[in-house]
Sequence to fold (83 residues):
Amino acid sequence: MSIKEIIIEKVNSINNPEILDSILSLISTESEMDQMYQFSMSEKQLVEEGIKDADNGNIYNQQESSNIISKWLQEKSSGLTGQ
Fold:
């Protein structure tokens, strides 16, 4: 008996809906991973611009990136809270 047949046999014997939901969720995730994402033309352009920036030395180190992101998040959250 193949592993696929063993799995099918075991799944067929399960009556617990929660376990079946978990199995379905796991199988669905696996099939989604098999599909290749296709970039749109605008996404491709943005990636190419990013590569050019990096090639030209327009980059930030980890600390600089963290500071920029933190500042941006503070500005956005201040707008949400009315501060």
In short: Helices lie at 3-12, 17-34, 41-55, 62-81. The mean pLDDT is 88. The chain has four helices and no strands. The CA atoms of residues 42 and 48 lie 10 Å apart.
